[in-house]
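testing teh design pipeline on a random one, pls ignore if ur not involved
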């Protein structure tokens, strides 16, 4: 079916307390993994492009590929901009056919974040009713080109969130509750502020988004290192963390790092095991299948399986 407005997918997720996975991509194979997983699990799916991914693949190529592939399946697919930085990013993606955009003004002072988000909402809503996700509070770690110092990381304040939502008109809100982007998350125990999610949800009643939500699966890290890689690895979110966050009001869970780790692990092993092989499909095909299986597992954990 045609790409679906994310806000429409959110209605049921928000009502029934489950989350839809956002899976980032920048090539054919990751997109196939996500869409095939959605179809097999009868799950809604969000595929997302960062501005870095858009630079890498070309916006027209990536959008037409997504549209063409979504048209061929029954599961609903939303195409989302991940961490848009300014109005140029938002306009570029709304005009190109995205069905949701994120405007991330979280590093600006509150009033500027509100003003920027308000502008994004006005543009997106008046151009086909496109959904807007905003961010309030600071995550730790690395986001594509942006490096947020750990010490600068700051959790979302519930009272500020009420004001932010009322004045910006955002449709969904990414909250900072202790997660961070990338493969280096929690040093010891994971310290997610689940209560904060619930407090914000009770006040806002809108879809809440969890960024930096990869699990950093130890087996993938081990396999990468076993076959010549060098990844330090760390703890990410386990199944219980997903369940707890979703029960408290998270409706979208962003996963990028886990797909990259799985992909790298499979490719490294194959390249090691098949020294005489040089057909890219013999490497990329199995990596694609492994990423698909991983996404299917995530869809089960998030509760979106069977909701298409
Ligand atoms: C994310 C991805 N994208 O916006 O929040 O987080 O690095 O944990 O996959 P991870
Ligand atoms: Ca941010
Ligand atoms: Zn993010």
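output:
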């Amino acid at each position: 079916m045609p790409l679906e407005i994310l806000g429409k997918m959110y209605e049921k997720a928000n009502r029934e307390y489950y989350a839809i996975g956002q899976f980032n991509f920048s090539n054919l194979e990751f997109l196939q993994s996500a869409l095939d997983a959605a179809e097999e699990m009868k799950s809604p799916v969000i595929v997302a492009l960062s501005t870095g991914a858009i630079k890498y693949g070309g916006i027209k190529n990536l959008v037409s590929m997504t549209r063409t592939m979504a048209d061929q399946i029954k599961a609903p697919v939303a195409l989302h901009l991940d961490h848009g930085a300014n109005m140029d990013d938002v306009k570029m993606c709304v005009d190109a056919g995205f069905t949701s955009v994120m405007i991330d003004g979280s590093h600006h002072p509150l009033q500027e974040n509100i003003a920027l988000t308000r502008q994004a909402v006005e543009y997106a809503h008046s151009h086909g009713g496109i959904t807007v996700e905003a961010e309030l509070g600071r995550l730790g770690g690395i986001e594509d080109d942006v490096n947020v110092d750990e010490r600068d990381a700051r959790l979302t304040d519930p009272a500020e969130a009420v004001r932010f939502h009322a004045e910006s008109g955002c449709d969904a809100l990414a909250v900072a509750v202790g997660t961070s982007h990338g493969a280096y998350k929690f040093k010891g125990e994971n310290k997610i502020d689940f209560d904060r999610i619930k407090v914000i949800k009770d006040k806002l009643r809108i879809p809440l988004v969890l960024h930096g939500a990869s699990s950093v699966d130890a087996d993938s890290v081990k396999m990468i290192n076993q076959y010549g890689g060098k990844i330090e690895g760390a703890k990410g979110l386990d199944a219980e963390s997903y369940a707890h966050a979703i029960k408290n009001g998270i409706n979208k869970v962003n996963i990028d790092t886990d797909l990259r780790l799985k992909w790298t692990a499979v490719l490294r092993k194959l390249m090691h095991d098949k020294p005489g092989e040089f057909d890219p499909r013999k490497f990329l095909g199995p990596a694609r299948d492994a990423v698909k299986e991983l996404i299917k597992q995530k869809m089960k954990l998030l509760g979106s399986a069977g909701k298409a």
